[in-house]
Amino acid sequence: MRFLGSNQNDARIKRMGKPLKPWLSFADQLQQLQVRGLQVDNSTAALDYLERLGYYRLSGYWYPLRAVDLVASAAQGKAVRQDTFVPNSRFEDVVRLYVFDKKLRLLALDALERIEMAVRVDVAHLLGQRDPRAHENPACLHGNFSKKPLTKGPDAGKTQHQVWLAKYRALLHRARKEPFVLHHIQQYGTLPIWAAIEVWDFGLLSKLFAGMQYVDQQKIAAMYGAPSGKAFAQWLRSLNFIRNVSAHHSRLWNINVLDYSPLPLGWPTQLNSARPFVYFCLMQKLLEVICPNSCWGQRFKDLLENEFPAMANQQISLAEFGAFSGWEKWVLWPQ
């Protein structure tokens, strides 16, 4: 990438559009929020949050509290937010929503770690019986994954398996000083699949599962009550999306899930696959198989029932998370 000189860069910015917003001190940031109508009961605490979390991160949590410009929204066919806040918007409620979201992310990571570990072992145990190096052997995988070259993008001409192997080898190189990696490389020149899974991430796992032979996918999917291997592969892709959002400390509670899954048969029709709640339901379904005595479901239920902030202006609700009225009585969740 070629970096422009300051004069060239200034000219480029002018061509592209509006100038960047000016830098503000933390005190000025807080004052700006108050001028725009955000109530602040404890200025010292509010400044502390701005200094530790940052204005931009918190802005995602006060965004739903900003007033809607009805004229602009009607013209553009979508909600257009003003800089000002609706009445009774409080900085303290923004922080409570942030803390709720943080706990939600931690719950997601707790569940997804268990799911990832269990499915890794399932994949390694099934494929390893066929070949200890099944993850590197195209014959052990589906032909579309291991033989059919991609026709578009930067990896055109390569198979999906070749792309997967490049990512796997990059992770293996990163872990090259780990004792188990050193041992296998020195002794055998490679890692068997049951050791290789220890360097995989969730994304690598989900992509390999999607590239497995149909019969192998079906065996693992059946263990978790998925209707098909194809459906289970999509569950893993969606859960990987949730995992990435959570691991990068991004806002989760009302995010739009881009890589979404179809609803399992028999699940309530009120569920929306584009909202995060569905994927917490999938986590609970999988955990009932992996660790049926886990209290994770109760912890999740307690978080939603007791710690989601009830705002005086009622600008946000768990409906934006995807939870439907009466969800807590659904048999999936502890009663």
Q: What are the salient characteristics of this protein?
A:
335 residues, two-stranded antiparallel ribbon, mainly alpha, 15 helices
Q: Please report the number of helical segments.
A: 15
Q: Segments where pLDDT lies below 50 for 5+ residues?
A: none
Instruction: Give the biggest sheet.
Output: 2 strands, antiparallel
Helix/strand structural class: mainly alpha
Element pattern in H and E: HHHHEHEHHHHHHHHHH
Mean pLDDT: 93
Gyration radius, in Å: 24 Å
How would you summarize the topology of this molecule?
Elements: H1 6-16, H2 26-35, H3 43-53, H4 55-62, E1 66-68, H5 70-76, E2 81-85, H6 91-130, H7 143-146, H8 160-174, H9 179-188, H10 193-196, H11 202-210, H12 214-223, H13 229-247, H14 277-290, H15 296-307
Antiparallel strand pairs: 1-2
Write structural notes for this entry.
The chain has helices spanning 6-16, 26-35, 43-53, 55-62, 70-76, 91-130, 143-146, 160-174, 179-188, 193-196, 202-210, 214-223, 229-247, 277-290, 296-307, and strands at 66-68, 81-85. The protein is built from 15 helices and two strands. The model has no long low-confidence stretch (mean pLDDT 93). The chain has a two-stranded antiparallel sheet with strand order 1-2. It is globular. The protein folds into two domains: 22-89, no CATH class; 99-329, no CATH class. By secondary structure, the chain is mainly alpha-helical.
